[in-house]
Amino acid sequence: xxxxxxxxxxxxxxxxxxxxxxxxxxxxxxxxxxxxxxxxxxxxxxxxxxxxxxxxxxxxxxxxxxxxxxxxxxxxxxxxxxxxxxxxxxxxxxxxxxxxxxxxxxxxxxxxxxxxxxxxxxxxxxxxxxxxxxxxxxxxxxxxxxxxxxxxxxxxxxxxxxxxxxxxxxxxxxxxxxxxxxxxxxxxxxxxxxxxxxxxxxxxxxxxxxxxxxxxxxxxxxxxxxxxxxxxxxxxxxxxxxxxxxxxxxxxxxxxxxxxxxxxxxxxxxxxxxxxxxxxxxxxxxxxxxxxxxxxxxxxxxxxxxxxxxxxxxxxxxxxxxxxxxxxxxxxxxxxxxxxxxxxxxxxxxxxxxxxxxxxxxxxxxxxxxxxxxxxxxxxxxxxxxxxxxxxxxxxxxxxxxxxxxxxxxxxxxxxxxxxxxxxxxxxxxxxxxxxxxxxxxxxx
Length: 445
Ligand SMILES: Nc1ncnc2c1ncn2[C@@H]1O[C@H](COP(=O)(O)OP(=O)(O)OP(=O)(O)O)[C@@H](O)[C@H]1O
Ligand SMILES: [Mg+2]
Known about the structure:
- By secondary structure, this protein is an alpha+beta fold.
- Helices cover about 50% and strands about 15% of the residues.
- The protein has 3 domains: about 5-160, Beta-Lactamase, CATH 3.30.450; about 190-290, Orthogonal Bundle (Helix Hairpins); about 295-435, Histidine kinase-like ATPase, C-terminal domain (Heat Shock Protein 90), CATH 3.30.565.10.
- It has helices at about 5-60, 140-175, 175-185, 205-255, 260-290, 300-315, 335-355, 380-385, 405-415, and strands spanning about 85-90, 95, 110-115, 120-125, 130-140, 300, 320-325, 330, 360-365, 370-375, 420, 430-435.
- The two termini are about 50 Å apart.
- The mean pLDDT is about 90.
- Adenosine-5'-triphosphate (ATP) binds near residues 353, 401 and 432.
- It is found in: Membrane.
């Protein structure tokens, strides 16, 4: 399952929660406001009716012909907001405001509040129920007031939603900065670096996780160290008794009379030599895995290469052709001992498995690409990839332990280089080629 972003989840969750709460609060506030508005409007309506009624009663009783309906003239024509009718108990109109439309009022005058489709009405009576005033207020006004209150409450939400989204995003991003730093610290680790990862100010929720990772690293490091030191120690401890036994058997062989005893002693001597070689390779592997492959300053590969090739040429009858780069020096970060071990294993293979009548080509380019090529039978593609595994050997008669390329691969990985095996070698129909691309480095000052 794809992991989801905390930032996205918190942003959406908080914003959605806030919006819902805000909407709930808005509805509550709106209901209260509406109720209060109605109360205020009603009381104003009532007040107005109560004010007009005595005046109307006075005027009507002063008339000579009280039965005549009368429109109250206005000083200036205007649109009335409140309209009123003054009627007697039978519904006969005695007085009305100039804009009043009798159709909007109840057929018979009534007291108290009532609501029609478009108006809020209030009626009051005087002179013992013979004179009624009814006053009408259009509902549109109240509705508009309620609507505007609602808008005023909802409007901030439009701004709040993006602010909340952005705010959460930024806040979570800032809070998780140390977690990102932690991730970078883990990613930046070189191969074989199992030291504790320390990042300051991790959030309290993540801190235990980092501690647990450090504990795990520590246990892993101890386990690997134990394994390596066991290998290295055993190989080292074997060295002396092996050398002593080898010397003894050599003497035994020389002293033995010509015949089967001498042949047998020679066989034992060979087995002991193989054993000594194996223990040497195990020590090399332990060293390669033990880290410390990266030196403090980059090394010039040319003299190191020339030295190892020289050494082999002495012991192998000058079969190796060395091709150096045009540059005077090629720097790369690799421990000189490790470089020597790597090179010896690869050249040893070329001498051992390459066609005896063909030279071995060793070349280094300006870009720190090292190639070791030999002739001889090709190795099938399917077998090629497994050759770098430990104790894996090809199909051949020569003796060996199958550790050489595993040692080379471990060193190459430890210094961040890359190794490719090709067969047949590039540009020819047979043979085997090992190419190693080292990381070029600046010359140290
Ligand atoms: N230059 C080469 N030409 C042809 N085959 C090779 C070459 N280098 C390695 N191989 C094949 O790869 C196999 C593994 O090589 P590797 O160096 O790991 O082990 P080894 O040489 O058999 O033993 P060791 O190096 O431990 O003494 C070899 O057995 C051989 O078959
Ligand atoms: Mg080998």
